[in-house]
Fold this protein.
Amino acid sequence: MAGAKLLTGNAVVGQSGGPTAVINQSLVGVVEGLRAGLKATGNVQKILGMRHGVNGLTKGDLIDLTEVPQDKLERVANTPSASLGSSRDKPDKDYCAKILKACEQHNIRYFFYVGGNDSSDTCRIVNELARASGYELRCFHVPKTVDNDLPVNDHTPGFPSAARFVAMAFAADSLDNRSLPGVKINVVMGRHAGFLTAASALARGIGGDPNDGPHLIYCPEVPFDTDQFIADVEKVYSKIGRCQVAVSEGIQDKDGVSIGAKLIKNGQVDSHGNVQLSGSGALGDQLSDLVKARIKNKDGKPPRVRADTFGYLQRCWPDASVVDKQEAREAGRVAAKAAAAGEMDGSIALIRAPGNPYRCEFKRIELSDVAAKTKHMPKEFIQGSNDVSQAFIEYCRPLVGPLPVFDRF
């Protein structure tokens, strides 16, 4: 509810989940927004930063950001990764009760959390506990995730920069594959949503050859069949003598079972109960073995096959999208402005304005609209079983920004 009375006390901000190239932009945006608003009015006395998210808050591991010089803020904003440190904790009700107790101990009245699905759920639970206990606290979620899977949002800060990395990496890898032809398989992040894998399509045409890859793109929204995969690769390889493949780490079979999880034996499990896919090359290795075993050249030998798992390299590569930097910063500022306007709580959503040129607007939505929920690639972004549509290209291109164009003899 906008226009509610403003509280007086301290504000705290933290970062959660996988770090990105622009998550510090959002952190600095919150600090700047608080300084211009609630700090200037005297409602916020101190701006505190949580070390390693709510884990640090419950332990009293806080840093005072109130008077940090602007030039240092600018350097931090342009530095990849989470400056305050991040956390993979998935707080339940008991954990959130400890978070609320820490807020009371430090007279925190404004709680800002930069993160993805589970971070927004943390905000929601803490918010509900505060209301139930009668402690006045305002909780705001600032969106972040390279997977681009937050509902309501057109896209999320972190995705455009990671998508830019994926496009550039595939362009370079395609040139390599052209120089030494063979089958190249690249496994890209994205457990449930294929946006980041789909971004590989932006590499097409960069190398100056209409046959540039990726030639095949497999997203988790489309059931993956190994027999069809082999047939797809063989068709491309027999035609042009090489094949570059983009595969989401989250590909699953027709029954919804993760291909990667089935292949990774005794794999580590994260705090969310998921087999850790990004830290293993098992999926790429297994797909490579399939190709070697089932596709043969005229001499009866398998083609040259290699696989790479991009893993964490995608998240914090220091070549952020310009659009991403600007929007991540503004998302943090808007969250602080919402608090200053008397909003009780909420998440900040990025909404694409209709028409051209590209423009993004920011909107406060309910925490329940996004908390612990996942968005998938819409059907109109998918073409067949192994490609993306022109609609996706037009959606993604303005987010990633200009890409270089190469040439060949």
Notes: The two ends are 63 Å apart (CA to CA). The longest strand covers residues 108-115.
